[in-house]
Amino acid sequence: MENKDAIKLLKDKINQAKNVVVISGAGISAESGIPTFRGKDGLWKKYRAEELATNQAFVRDSSLVWEWYNWRREIIGSKKPNPAHEACVKLEKKLGKGFSIITQNVDGLHGLAGNKNVLEIHGNIWRTRCTSCGIVEEHREKLTTNPRCEKCEGLLRPDVVWFGESLDENILYNTFQKLLESEVALVVGTSGVVYPAAQFADTAKGRGAYVAEINLEKTAKSSDVDISIIGKAGEILPLLVD
Length: 242
Ligand code: OAD
What we know:
alpha/beta, 6-stranded parallel beta sheet, 3-stranded antiparallel beta sheet, binds 2'-O-acetyl adenosine-5-diphosphoribose
């Protein structure tokens, strides 16, 4: 099917639905200027995300991991939501509680754009968690590569979910509620290789949702969705909500 026809079909599905969910990944923030994890811009120095976003890497060399997160915080701090995020705001205005975003992104751009119903399943890069007392706090200021807890002097870590760690139980529960209720699920800008997020679209589809993928290219999940639209999220999503 041509993109023009696919967009029309999907727009009709969205217009008829009371419950729509967006499952977003790094690609939705790419047009804001934030590098994705995989693909040609995905490397930082010589490291892949999987080599740094782990507790083992943090235990081995917390300064290196903090250097990476500080680099990402600096990039993200200067970026703004793009038309794809804004299209999600329009959908939430229209559907209210019937619209939610399940995002793997830790950049906070969905919230900055104005969406309220956002489940940040991998955490948020602007929060820290003390490895000693566990306190979670927002820290927008520049951090060192050895940031310490103001309460107990313990080493702080980013309040994000690393490979090998479990997702927050409440967030996961709410995520599945939203997936099970959804009539349309839009999978936007994710390579679909990191679990459990990679299985969310299947869960929604299994309960009868119409599942569409919007991505620059075919992904590991393209053959499982109802419709795959190849293009930039910032160009396609606004066409679905206008
Ligand atoms: P990836 O970097 O794996 O995938 C980004 C996807 O976005 C790719 O499929 C691109 O083709 C697509 N893409 C890029 N630009 C786009 C655009 N303008 N419009 C539409 N699509 C675009 O990022 P994620 O799938 O989000 O986890 O990665 C999942 C997880 O792996 C991340 O949350 C992170 C990472 O390691 C942790 O840190 C735990």
